[in-house]
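Run log // design_07
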């Protein structure tokens, strides 16, 4: 059976690097680690390969020769593949002829290939043979020991402030794009714990010394001699030195990625720059990993995001595990995303009845549909599970048919009349602010309210778009004067606003104001509703997103939205909270895309309502799309 190809399904993506189309892209990967890594692990690893197997090289040989043909047959047209794992080029170049052959075979079969480049590992044993001063490239933890990657005793974490390491990586990138023939680069594990080497201590001290008015900011006339903070369990970063340390770490990582982007584009202007960092909304991104995803994303053409948030409805908790937050944020930033959601593909049995869940979720919220498991090795001649392959052909054909049928609705802009203020830098510091947004997202998703985000970084004033009908400021305690002024201006222009908690009481540095300027500015406006008690939800956002249902179903926030006088132009009725909806603006009206996270229970009796009509929705299982109304 042949899978119907989409319009650009077998054209190399690099031909339109800046315009990667999620509707025509189908991602996969398998042999993205080298033989040396699998054997050193000696156990089953990412991709499902058993590292101790005697047939490992045979499988890699099959992969390089035959895998691109299988991808073409399935309509899979993009992947990242092994190139550099952090063992040093003198070691890894031994496999380079095989890698080059694989890239040539990919291109012959219409598959775009990104070079896998490990960002966070130095395999120091082989690398020391090539680089005698490798110790100077390594991170040091708070105890003065070399920091290990994921506690593997044979993997150090590189210090990203090392000029020698940065220059070495630029050489690796050049080889990938020239001799390697790759269409771009995918950096893996782009996150950086705190480093306490002498170089980082010096650089942070220099950063502190460069800041104006230290007495106002830190309480001291001079901050000479101040050190990097040590790990802490504090929740809010009110200590100004700790705040500045987080900012400096984030800015340092962003600068390194910006440098690598310049190098990649200088070597190959149409190359795709991608990185696998952390999930966008993980609450530990800044404190543990030096990541603020909104500013970090400016360096990328394509997001790669690995998590364990496989779409599911959990009983009896009522938790809906999903990736919608990350998909919506990526779409808002205008960047395509491969949002992986099965942790380590091939290590666990995959129920074929659930296979379509992440693909449909991707399709609805503009992610790139990804199959990680069909290319996993199987211990049979030919290394492919043919029964699974035939099932996947049918499922991918269903996805492609769905894409073709609803192309107009899928490419249409989202209807986002409600915007959640997202001051990205402040969210690095304030647990309450992070929780306010998490609760608001969950309430809006479960109550089928169409929403998007309003981003701001640092102290900058957000630009509120003309199509924003309601702005929600969800317990955003830390707001700059410029941000307060922008919110007030929007309100006075008759914009509808919902505010909760102590929004605006502190400035962007977490310094408490005597009087809350946001309260003063919004007082007496009849389109503004302020509730002192903020919304909260249990659970959390980490490697797996598990957010508990709001205890009252979000009734307080929904009542506030109504009290502002706002009414949506389209809404749904009789839809369970475990069904999420995406609303689209069409030339003559609106469309609605439904996804049921509990597909064993069919949805019955749902309705779509506009001011002009009410439309009955047929019973459905996993998904249903209502065309333009």
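design_07 sequence
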């Amino acid at each position: 059976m042949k899978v119907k190809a989409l319009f650009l399904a077998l054209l190399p993506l690099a031909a339109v690097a800046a315009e990667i189309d999620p509707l025509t892209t189908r991602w996969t990967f398998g042999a993205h680690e080298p033989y040396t890594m699998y054997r050193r692990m000696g156990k089953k690893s990412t991709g499902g390969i058993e590292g101790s197997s005697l047939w490992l090289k045979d499988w890699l040989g099959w992969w390089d020769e035959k895998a691109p043909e299988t991808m073409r047959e399935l309509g899979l047209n993009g992947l990242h593949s092994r190139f550099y794992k952090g063992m040093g080029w003198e070691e890894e170049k031994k496999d380079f002829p095989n890698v080059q052959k694989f890239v040539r075979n990919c291109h012959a079969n219409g598959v775009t290939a990104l070079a896998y480049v490990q960002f966070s590992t130095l395999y120091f044993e082989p690398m020391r043979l090539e680089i005698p001063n490798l110790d100077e490239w390594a991170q040091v933890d708070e105890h003065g020991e070399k920091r290990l990657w994921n506690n593997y005793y044979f993997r150090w974490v590189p210090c990203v402030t090392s000029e020698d390491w940065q220059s070495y990586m630029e050489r690796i990138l050049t080889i990938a794009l020239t001799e390697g023939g790759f269409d771009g680069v995918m950096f893996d594990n782009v996150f950086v714990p705190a480093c306490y080497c002498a170089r980082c201590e010096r650089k942070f001290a220099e950063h502190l010394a460069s800041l104006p008015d230290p007495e106002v900011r830190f309480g001291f006339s001079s901050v000479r001699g101040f050190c990097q903070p040590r790990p802490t369990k504090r929740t809010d970063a009110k200590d100004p030195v700790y705040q500045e340390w987080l900012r400096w770490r984030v800015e340092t990582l962003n600068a390194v990625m910006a440098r690598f982007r310049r190098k990649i584009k200088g070597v190959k202007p149409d190359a795709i720059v991608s990185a696998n960092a952390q999930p966008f909304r993980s609450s530990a991104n800044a404190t543990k990993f030096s990541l603020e995803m909104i500013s970090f994303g400016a360096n990328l053409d394509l997001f790669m995001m690995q998590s364990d948030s496989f779409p599911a409805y959990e009983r009896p908790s009522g938790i809906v595990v999903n990736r919608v937050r990350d998909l919506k944020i990526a779409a808002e930033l205008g960047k395509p995303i491969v949002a992986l959601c099965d942790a380590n593909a091939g290590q666990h049995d995959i129920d074929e009845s659930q296979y379509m869940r992440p693909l449909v979720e991707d399709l609805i919220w503009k992610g790139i549909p990804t199959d990680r498991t069909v290319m996993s090795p199987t211990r049979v001649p030919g290394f492919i599970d043919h029964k699974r392959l035939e099932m996947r052909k049918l499922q991918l054909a269903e996805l492609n048919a769905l894409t073709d049928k609803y192309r107009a609705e899928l490419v249409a802009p989202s209807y986002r009349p409600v915007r959640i203020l997202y001051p990205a830098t402040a969210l690095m510091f304030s647990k309450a602010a992070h929780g306010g947004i998490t609760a608001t997202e969950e309430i809006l998703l479960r109550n089928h309210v169409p929403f998007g985000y309003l981003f701001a970084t640092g102290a900058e004033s957000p630009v509120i778009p003309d199509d924003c009908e309601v702005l929600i400021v969800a317990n955003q305690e830390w707001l700059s004067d410029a941000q307060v002024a922008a919110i007030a201006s929007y309100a006075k222009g008759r914009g509808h606003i919902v505010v909760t908690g102590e929004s605006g009481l502190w400035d962007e540095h977490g310094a408490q104001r005597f009087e809350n300027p946001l309260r003063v500015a919004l007082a007496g406006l009849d389109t503004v509703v302020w509730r002192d008690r903020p919304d909260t939800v249990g659970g959390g956002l980490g490697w797996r997103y598990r957010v508990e249902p709001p205890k009252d179903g979000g009734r307080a926030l929904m009542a506030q939205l109504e009290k502002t006088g706002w009414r949506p132009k389209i809404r749904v009725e009789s839809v369970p909270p475990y069904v999420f909806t995406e609303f689209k603006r069409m030339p003559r009206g609106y469309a609605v895309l439904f996804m049921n996270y509990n597909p064993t229970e069919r949805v019955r009796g749902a309705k779509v309502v506009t001011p002009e009509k009410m439309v009955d929705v047929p019973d459905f299982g996993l998904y249903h799309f209502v065309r333009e109304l």
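Residues 240-267 form the longest helix (28 residues).
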